[in-house]
Amino acid sequence: MLVDQGISRVTGAPRWMLVVSIALVTSLAGALGIVRATNSQMDQVGRVSVVTPVLSPASDGFENYLLVGSDSRASATEGDEDFAVVGSEATSPGQRSDTLIVVHVNTKDSSVATMSIPRDLWARMGDSNTYKKINSAYQRGPDVLVRTVQRALNIPIHHYVEVNFSGFKEIVDAIGGVRICVPRASRDKYTGFYIGRKACKLQSGADALRYARARHLEEKVDGRWKLEPTGDVGRGNRQRAFMSMLAKDTALFLARNPMETSKVLTAFASAVSVNEGLDLIDLGRKLRPMGDGTSQSFTLPVDSDMSTGSFTFTLNNDAQPLLAFFAGLATAPAVG
C-alpha cells in the first residue's frame, strides 16, 4: 500500500518544516487584505539563482516543487535552547538536506500530493557517476541536488523551496507553537524529543524541530521503550503529517490574530529561499488542499541495502507507478 498510514496514526505529528505553510500564510494574508505588506515582505525572500538553469521546463497539467530542509548550523548560537543537540557550524560543518519532499500540484483539478524522499536513498550525484546518499548532494549545491533528484526518480522538478533549521523554529514560534500528536509516550534520546503519554501537545519551535529531526523515535509499549521500526521512512511519514498540521495551525492563528500577520510573514521571509520567479502568493493558493486535509500523501517504496558498506535504500519495483504519477504520466496509485 503506497498511501502513507502515518498520517492517521500520528495526526498532527510534525513533519516538516513546513514551508508549505509559507504559501498558505501568504495566501491568507492576501485574503485578509494585507496584499501590499505581503508583497513587500515576500520581496525579502531569498532567491536561489543557481537552481534556475537546472529546473525542468513547464509541464502540461502539473507542477512539482522540491521542498528542502537544510541542516546547516551556520545560524546556530550557544544561546539557543537546543544548541547542545543541534550543534554548531564548527562541530557539524557544511550542510545536508535533512528533509526532502516533493509536492505535486495538478494544475487542472487543483489536487495536491506529497512524497518524501528518504535521505539514505542511494543515488548518482548530479550529472556525475559518483554514488552517495541523496542527502549529501546538497553539499555540492542546490543545483546538484535538483539534478540528483530528477535523475534518481526520473521526474521533473519545476520549483525549489528551502528552509533552514533556525528559520523553522522561528516559523513555529511566530504562530505560538504547533500541535504534535503521538499515539503513545514517545521520545528520541538523540534529539531530546519527549512526550510522556498519548496526547496532542502544543510544541515550541525548538521542540518541533526535535521531533522533525527524530530518526531514533521510541514508543512506550506495555511499559517498555521500543524503537519505532520504520526508521527514516517513518520519519518521512511524520514529516508530511506535520506539514498539514503546521498549515492548519498557521491558518487558524492568522484567522484569530490578523494583526500578527506581519510577524508571521517576517519569520517566513527570513527562513525561506526559493528559485527565481516563484510567486509565493500563487503557491499559497495552489497548496490550500494541504491545509484543509484533502491532499494525498505517499510513501516512496524502497528496499534496505547494505551492499555499499553502510545502510542505504534503493528503489523498490513498486515505486514505478508512484513515480509515473509524479512524472505526469499516470493517475495517482489506488488507495489500499
Automatic annotation (TrEMBL):
<dbReference type="Pfam" id="PF03816">
    <property type="entry name" value="LytR_cpsA_psr"/>
</dbReference>
<dbReference type="InterPro" id="IPR050922">
    <property type="entry name" value="LytR/CpsA/Psr_CW_biosynth"/>
</dbReference>
<feature type="transmembrane region" description="Helical">
    <location>
        <begin position="16"/>
        <end position="35"/>
    </location>
</feature>
<keyword id="KW-0812">Transmembrane</keyword>
<keyword id="KW-1133">Transmembrane helix</keyword>
<keyword id="KW-0472">Membrane</keyword>
<protein>
    <submittedName>
        <fullName>Unannotated protein</fullName>
    </submittedName>
</protein>
<dbReference type="InterPro" id="IPR004474">
    <property type="entry name" value="LytR_CpsA_psr"/>
</dbReference>
<feature type="domain" description="Cell envelope-related transcriptional attenuator">
    <location>
        <begin position="96"/>
        <end position="249"/>
    </location>
</feature>
